[in-house]
Amino acid sequence: MHKISFFSYKGGSGRSSTLINIVPFLIKELKADCNHPIILLDMDIDSTGLTYLLHQGDKVRTGLSIQKIMVDGVPGGNNFQRKLEEHQFFSNLLKVGSEFHCEDGAVLLLPAEAGVSVGKDGTNKNMTNRDSGHIEKIIDVCERYDCAAIVFDSSAGDQDTANVSNGKADVIVCCMRPTIQFQEGTLDYFKRMSRIIRNRDVILLPNAVSRTNTNVDGKVYPITAKNRIIDAFDNNFPETGNTIHFDAMTGSHFGIPLVRRFLWQESILANLDADALAEDEKEAIEMYQQVASMIYKYGQNGG
Description:
Layout: E1 2-7, H1 15-30, E2 38-42, H2 49-53, H3 66-72, E3 94-95, E4 107-110, H4 129-144, E5 149-153, H5 160-168, E6 171-176, H6 180-192, E7 201-206, E8 214-216, E9 219-221, H7 223-236, E10 243-245, H8 247-250, H9 279-299
Parallel strand pairs: 1-5, 1-6, 2-4, 2-5, 6-7, 7-10
Antiparallel strand pairs: 3-4, 8-9
C-alpha cells in the first residue's frame, strides 16, 4: 500500500488543491476501486481545507473525523472479520469518489472538523504517542484490507499533525512556491526533523509558477529561481537522510504553472471538458499526471 503525504512548510502553496488534482491520476495508476480504495486523511485540522474542497464540511459534524479518532481510537480497529464495506472504520468514512468522476467508494475521506482541537492544551500541538498510535492503527487497518493508498493532506510547518503525516509516509510530495522563504524553511524543516523523518522519497513540487519571464535586479526569472532551488537542495538535502527528486522541475516544465482559474475557483481540472481547457490548465494536467506517476514509482519502495 502506498503511503503518501502532501506537505508544505508554509501555507499558501496550493497543497490541498494540488492533492485533489493529482488524485484522479492516482486512481488510474493504483487501479483503485471500491475493493481497493484510496483513503484520504485531512490532517490539516486547523483549516480543514481538504474537507471543504470536497464539499464535506456539513457532513463531518455528525460523522467520524480525525479528531474523534484521536479521542476514541479507530472503530473496529481489532476486528478484521467483516468485509471492507461493512467494517466500522470504512463504513463511517465519507464516499467522495464521485468528486473525481469514479466509483463513489473508490475514494474515501476521513475529514477534519473545523474548530475542534486534538491537543490537551486546546491546540493542535502536543499530540501524544497515543495520538500517533491511532494513525498507525489506521494504516494497519488499511493495509489489512489491501487499500490502494493512504494519502495525508498534511498541515503546514512544524505542527504535530504534519510531523506525524510525514513520519508515516513513504513518499512526501513537498509543495512550495518558488520563493526564498519556502526554499529555506523547507530545507530547515527536513534538517531539524531528520531524527524522525528519514529514508523517505521527497518529490519537490513548485506550484503556481509564473511562465512569464521577469527581470529582477538583473536576473531573469523563473529560471533563476529554478537553478537556485535545485542548487540549494542538491547541496544540503543529503544530510537530512532522505532522497530528493527534481523530476517535476527539470523536465519540459518547471513545476506546476500558475493556473488563473484557481485565483477565483479551485477545480479538479481532470473533470472539465478537455477541449475547453486553457493552455495553463492543459500544462497543469500534464504535471499532475507526471507527479502521480512519480508517486506510483517511488511508492513501490515502501508500498
